[in-house]
Write a structure and sequence with these properties.
With 270 residues, the chain is of the alpha/beta class. The chain is built from ten helices and six strands, in the order E-H-E-H-H-H-E-H-H-E-H-E-H-H-E-H.
């Protein structure tokens, strides 16, 4: 069901790789709610993924951008504003990559040069996106920026490795830049801390099936799906949440505030 929550709004979606991606599901929901879109991802992801299929479905151009490259981001925002004929109302940052995890390095033996790339791509890319928009005055008054995160930023999940540090930094950038952008143009900047979700990227985390099962048993409402996360993002892009900013918003079925559940107790007593 559509409510036209984003009718007339224009947004950029970063990170849609395939149909499992939360960014992909969010693009579909935003389109259904009346938004006009531009899709972006890294050049290598554009070659590997199926983004042209999504672009056709949501009637959006695809503009590649390396989020660690300021020139690429400037071009992306300039071309997006040209396409929209004006400023931008919302941005989804759904970007994360860990070289140490890909290479099988444990947290206690990470390669620090790879770690710099992980933090740069997964966290400081949000600062670059916001900085580029700030410099170009690309975001409209009251615009909304959402970045996807995970509760490993606050709690230890051993196999989440260096991405936990990256998510903690991502959330810090959200608060800090959110202050300045709120003061300047009433722009909202938030993170959504989603349940573990079976995306292509998420499934690459060691022990991910265990994450999913444990979170399901620990969440009173169960795990939130990618489509449900997309619905939540739509509300944050809409005018219904104009006074919400600098927040880390848990979208996890209650996992984040559950000490233990009967399902976990029953499992432990078997």
């Amino acid at each position: 069901m559509s409510y036209n929550l984003l009718k007339g709004k224009k947004g950029i979606i970063f990170g849609a790789l395939d149909e499992k991606s939360i960014a992909w599901r969010t693009a579909l929901k935003c389109h259904a709610e009346g938004a006009q879109l531009v899709l972006s991802n890294a050049p290598v992801a554009l070659r590997m993924g199926e983004i042209n299929k999504l672009a056709e479905a949501v009637q959006a151009p695809v503009i590649g951008a390396d989020v660690t490259n300021m020139d690429d981001l400037k071009k992306l925002f300039e071309e997006s504003m040209k396409h929209f004929g004006g400023g931008i109302d919302f941005v989804l940052h759904s970007i994360g990559m860990s070289l140490n995890m890909r290479k099988g390095k444990s947290y206690t033996e990470i390669d620090y040069e790879w770690n710099k790339k992980t933090l740069d791509i997964s966290a400081m890319s949000l600062h670059r996106v916001l900085r580029t928009a700030w410099d170009l005055d690309a975001l409209n008054e009251g615009a909304s920026v959402v970045a996807l995160t995970y509760i490993a930023a606050q709690r230890v999940f051993p196999d989440y490795n260096e991405m936990a540090d990256a998510k903690a930094l991502l959330e810090s950038v959200t608060r800090s830049f959110g202050y300045y952008y709120g003061m300047k143009k009433k722009v909202r900047v938030n993170t959504v801390s989603q349940s573990p979700t079976r995306t292509t990227a998420g499934s690459g985390v060691k022990g991910f099936d265990g994450f999913i099962t444990y979170a399901e048993k620990m969440s009173p409402l169960g795990n939130a799906t990618g489509d449900q996360c997309a619905d939540y993002c739509v509300t944050l892009f809409s005018d219904l949440t104009r006074m919400v900013t600098m927040q880390n918003l848990f979208h996890d079925g209650g996992f984040s505030f559950s000490g233990v559940t009967q399902g976990v107790i029953d499992q432990m007593e078997k």
